[in-house]
Input
Amino acid sequence: MRDFPDHARVKIAIYKIMLCDKLLIMENEPKKIKILVADDEPTMRNALRRHLVENNFIVVEANNGKEALEKTANEQFDLIILDGNMPEMNGIDACKRLKSSPRTQNIPILFSTGTHINDVREGKVPADDYIEKPYTFNMLMVKIKELLRL
Output
């Protein structure tokens, strides 16, 4: 070290140790999982957001399929929860477009529906999995953990 007094050298050494410890802590922090929730019902979006945030997920919301596509053009997501019945672009069309795009085709999609169950079961919706409405948050968490392999 330069010609610093002994007490200054000790402070510099302590600072370097603290900085290294902080960097190690930051490197070891788990990556937060980012989920896009697309649903036209504000009450449903709010409940999903609240529950997912409580479980340490980052949540971005979309009001419809068109908005979901716009969000995926600008942000990267780990999972998409997509409602079936939405205005402007329904969940089926949004799911087909997301799965046909190289940018989003590998993002797991959980299709949330009460009316399109047969379409999903027959393979008309290319979602990775589905959850039938009404469902509990425990059921939702099981599906999310399966899709994300947590």
About this structure: Residues 143 and 149 are 10 Å apart (CA to CA). DSSP finds six helices and five strands in the chain. Residues 1-30 form one domain.
